[in-house]
Amino acid sequence: DVSIEAHSNPGWIEDDRLVMKLPTGSDYFSSETGIDKVGVVFKAMARASTVAFVGDGLPDLAPALIVPSALRFARGVLAEELTRMGESFHPFNHWSDVAQALIALG
Q: What is the pTM (predicted TM-score) of this model?
C-alpha cells in the first residue's frame, strides 16, 4: 500500500498563463519558496520509515538530497543539477511513473 502526500503552491491557468499563489495557510509556508520543502521532508521522516521526494526545480535540490537516492525522483532543472553533481535519481514524466516505481520498490 502506497500513500502519497503532496505539498505544493496552489496554481491555475488564466489567460493561457500559469498563475501561482503563496500558500500562506500551510503549516509549511515559506515566504521565499511558498513551501518549506526541507521542513516537509524532515517532518515526514519523523513520521514514516520510508520517504520519497519528487521535484523538478532548483528549490527542490536541498530536500531531494535528504532522501536516499533510490527514493529520489527528478525531472527538469532538478534532474540536470543532480546529474551535474553525480547524484542518482529516478527520472519521471508523470506522477503515475512515481507511483509505479514506489509500488515496484515495495
A: 0.82
